[in-house]
Amino acid sequence: MEQVDIVDENLQIIGTTSKENAHKKGLLHKTVVAEVVNSKGEMLLVRQSPHKQDPGQYVSPVGGHVSVGETNEEALLREAEEEIGIENFQYSHLGSLIFDRTTRGKRENHYFIIYEIQADITPVLNDESDAYQWFTKEQIEQTLLDNPDILGKAFVPIWEKYYSKSA
User: Fold this and answer.
1) What is the fold, at CATH topology level, of the domain defined by 3-162?
2) What pLDDT was estimated at residue 158?
3) Measured between alpha carbons, how far apart are the two ends of the chain, in Å?
4) Which partner for 152 in 22, 54, 93, 127 could form a disulfide, CB atoms 3.0-4.6 Å apart?
5) Burial class of residue 87, CB neighbours in 10 A (0-12, 13-18, 19+)
6) Based on C-alpha coordinates, what's the Rg of the chain?
7) Would you say residue 167 has pLDDT above 70?
8) How far apart are CA 81 and CA 68, in angstroms?
9) Domain limits of the chain?
10) What pLDDT, on the 0 to 100 scale, is given for residue 105?
11) Taking all residues of the chain, what is their mean pLDDT, rounded to a whole number?
12) What is the mean pLDDT of residues 150-156?
């Protein structure tokens, strides 16, 4: 069972538990999330597979739990390789936000550690995603107006905080 650190709102570790227990009890724990931006300024989004929490919706291409004893950067490197098949990339830390929701019978109370990866890639997807698309920032803004349900609920607050015109 994957073990995660339980943190407070100041990112101080206050305990450890299994990922399953953290979701069952709604305990705040760290996850890394990364947006991928290419040299044209387009953002890569992946469409979630039917068995994932945002099925059929486009979400951040990299995201996953930080395991006990793992640094945020180690989790970022591991997740990027697992989810989109890239290694040895440039990235920067954007910031963080707390994302708390109940979905599919579990409470995801995540402390997002958010990164941006700068890369011109053709992603190699794992079973968590079934498609990908590069979006211009204008296309994302328009999608939020016209058809917001195709974007995953966890992606939207990251977009609004770090990328939207009002950010």
Assistant:
1) Nucleoside Triphosphate Pyrophosphohydrolase (3.90.79)
2) 97
3) 38
4) 54
5) exposed
6) 15
7) no
8) 19
9) 3-162
10) 77
11) 94
12) 94
For CA atoms 143, 95, 52, 101, give the dihedral sign. Answer: negative
Q: How many residues does the chain have?
A: 167
74-132 pLDDT tens trace: 999 999 999 999 999 999 999 999 999 887 778 889 999 999 999 999 999 999 999 99
Burial 133-152 (b: 16+ CB within 10 A, else e): eebeeeebeebeeeeeeebb
- What is the residue type of 93? H
The token pair at 65 is 């739990």
Query: Do the Cβ atoms of 48 and 152 come closer than 8 Å?
Result: yes
CA–CA separation, 161 and 1 (whole Å): 33
The DSSP line for 138-151 is HHHHHHHHH-GGGB
Q: Which residue has the higher pLDDT, 42 or 54?
A: 42
Whether pTM exceeds 0.85: yes
Does residue 44 contact residue 134 with C-beta atoms inside 8 Å?
Answer: yes
Burial of 10 (0-12, 13-18, 19+ CB in 10 A): exposed
Q: Which amino acid is at 26?
A: G
